[in-house]
């Protein structure tokens, strides 16, 4: 019912637009009466704009109507004007009819910015009408309950008192009955859209009808106008039309919805549909909208997809970096050309790099393999440098290669760790014992300590099995540890 009321308000305002073309009006009505109900698994509405336009043509040209009636006797019937023109794009979903009576089904719709704005405004309009409808029902139920109490408590001979605000003339009597509050509200919105009622009068009437909840119905005309404005974008923009065409084509390929239990089966088709939608909406945001019907209720979820590609480095910066590397790595470059084109100081100087390379080559040549091994044995360190890294030619960024690593191991480290472990344990135990003794002094009394000790030793416990508890003190890594053992008494078997 709410979807039908929203569609009727929007179509009513569309009919009043004199500057809008008739084809656009018909297409907007198809969207509101056919496409949107299919998305929400609701029954479709009836078209009215096309019928009104044909009736107006017949009234303006009665002779043409008579001629056409005589021609129909002689010639076979021809399609009407609305069918000959045809819609700009087809919005009928042939796959949606058989899913409306099913449960746990969904529809998948990838939309652009204009479609998202329309769906969001449509949702706001539906929520407002629903709140007004529920408030009218609530007031009617409260009024009926009060009437029943008055009939029971008050005597039939006594006259029933009216509203105090009415008696004090603080409130004007309303001609609208409580049962007609919601239909009257819809008529008032239509009158506000036509300009037949002032906004102040409209708001005052709503306050008289819905009291403190009247604010829900304020600015309804602005909201409907924004919805109609978005609908004009949907029927005139090429991207919006292609979004619908893509959705309907993917529905035929079973890639835009179905049963929730078999959604994993359509994962590849839905991924393909998403890829096509993202490439179609390259310059806009791409939203993933799902309409899920569960236990007779339809839930709409919206997700903004991340379609932005990673930004590449500026080609000018990349070229500067390439020139920098060439100038300061190659040693045969002239010193006068090193600072050309660079404002900042260089990170490293060519002369320092040359000196370092010469010193490094002399050290490597002087040290033989045997000397290297002896030096490693004396130091007691084994290491390996197998990390491999590569540079991207276009950005000069360094990337590490997988399965390549460095390691360093000091000989005898494990043995020394085993030797120092008891001392480490002893120090940790002393720290813990110091903290524990302090906690016992602050929180445990002597009676509580004796009670716990008697429980551990099994003293004066009648419900326990006859036994004897022994406390043995052993040393673990130089730390005294109490170990309790229980020995049960053996009784002779009963005769």
Sheet with the most strands: spatial strand order = 2-1-3-4
Q: Which geometry do the CA atoms define? A: flat
Tally the helices. 17
Question: How many β-strands, per DSSP?
Answer: 10
| Portion in strands | 5-15%
Determine the fraction of residues in helical runs and give it as a percent range.
Answer: 40-55%
Q: Please give the largest β-sheet.
A: 4 strands, antiparallel
Describe this structure in words.
- The structure is a single chain.
- The chain is an alpha+beta fold and 495 residues long.
- Helices cover 54% and strands 13% of the residues.
- The strands form four sheets. Strands 2-1-3-4 form a four-stranded antiparallel sheet. Strands 5-8 form a two-stranded antiparallel sheet. It has a two-stranded antiparallel sheet with strand order 6-7.
- Helix 1 (2-15) packs parallel to helix 8 (181-194), helix 8 runs antiparallel to helix 9 (199-210) and helix 11 (238-252) runs antiparallel to helix 12 (267-280).
- The N and C termini lie far apart (87 Å).
């Amino acid at each position: 019912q709410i979807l039908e009321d929203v569609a009727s308000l929007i179509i009513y305002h569309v009919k009043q637009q004199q500057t809008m073309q008739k084809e656009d009006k018909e297409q907007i009505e198809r969207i509101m009466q056919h496409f949107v109900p299919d998305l929400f698994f609701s029954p479709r509405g009836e078209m009215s704009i096309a019928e009104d336009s044909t009736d107006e043509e017949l009234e303006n040209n009665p002779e043409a109507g008579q001629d056409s009636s005589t021609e129909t006797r002689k010639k076979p019937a021809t399609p009407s004007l609305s069918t000959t023109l045809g819609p700009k794009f087809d919005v009928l979903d042939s796959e949606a009819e058989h899913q409306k009576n099913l449960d746990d089904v969904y529809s998948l719709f990838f939309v652009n910015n204009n479609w998202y704005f329309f769906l969001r405004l449509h949702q706001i309009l539906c929520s407002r009408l629903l709140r007004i409808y529920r408030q009218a029902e609530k007031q009617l139920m409260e009024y009926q309950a009060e009437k029943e109490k008055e009939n029971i408590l008050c005597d039939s001979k006594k006259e029933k008192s009216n509203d105090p605000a009415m008696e004090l003339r603080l409130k004007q009597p309303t001609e609208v009955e409580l049962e007609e509050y919601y239909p009257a509200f819809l008529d008032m919105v239509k009158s506000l859209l036509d300009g037949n009622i002032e906004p102040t009068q409209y708001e005052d009437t709503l306050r008289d009808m819905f009291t403190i909840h009247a604010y829900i119905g304020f600015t309804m005309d602005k909201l409907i106008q924004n919805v109609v404005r978005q609908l004009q974008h949907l029927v005139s923009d090429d991207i919006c039309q292609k979004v619908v065409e893509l959705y309907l084509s993917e529905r035929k390929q079973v890639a835009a919805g179905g049963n929730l239990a078999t959604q994993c089966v359509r994962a590849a088709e839905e991924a393909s549909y998403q890829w096509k939608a993202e490439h179609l909406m390259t310059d806009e945001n791409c939203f993933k909208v799902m309409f899920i019907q569960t236990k007779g209720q339809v839930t709409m979820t919206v997700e903004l997809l991340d379609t932005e590609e990673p930004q590449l480095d500026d080609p000018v910066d990349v070229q500067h970096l390439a020139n920098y590397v060439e100038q300061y790595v190659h040693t045969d470059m002239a010193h006068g050309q090193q600072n050309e084109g660079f404002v900042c100081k260089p990170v490293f100087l060519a002369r320092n790099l040359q000196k370092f390379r010469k010193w490094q080559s002399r050290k490597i040549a002087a040290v033989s393999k045997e000397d290297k091994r002896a030096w490693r044995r004396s130091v007691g360190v084994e290491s390996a440098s197998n990390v491999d890294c590569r540079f991207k030619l276009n950005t000069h960024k360094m990337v590490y290669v997988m399965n390549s690593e460095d390691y360093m191991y000091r000989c005898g480290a494990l043995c020394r760790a085993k030797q120092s472990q008891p001392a480490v344990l002893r120090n940790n135990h002393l720290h813990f014992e110091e903290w524990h003794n302090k906690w016992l002094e602050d929180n445990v009394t002597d009676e509580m300590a004796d009670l716990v000790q008697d429980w551990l030793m099994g003293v004066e416990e009648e419900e326990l099995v006859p036994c004897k508890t022994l406390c043995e003190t052993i040393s673990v890594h130089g730390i005294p540890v109490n170990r309790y053992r229980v020995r049960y008494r053996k009784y002779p078997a009963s005769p």
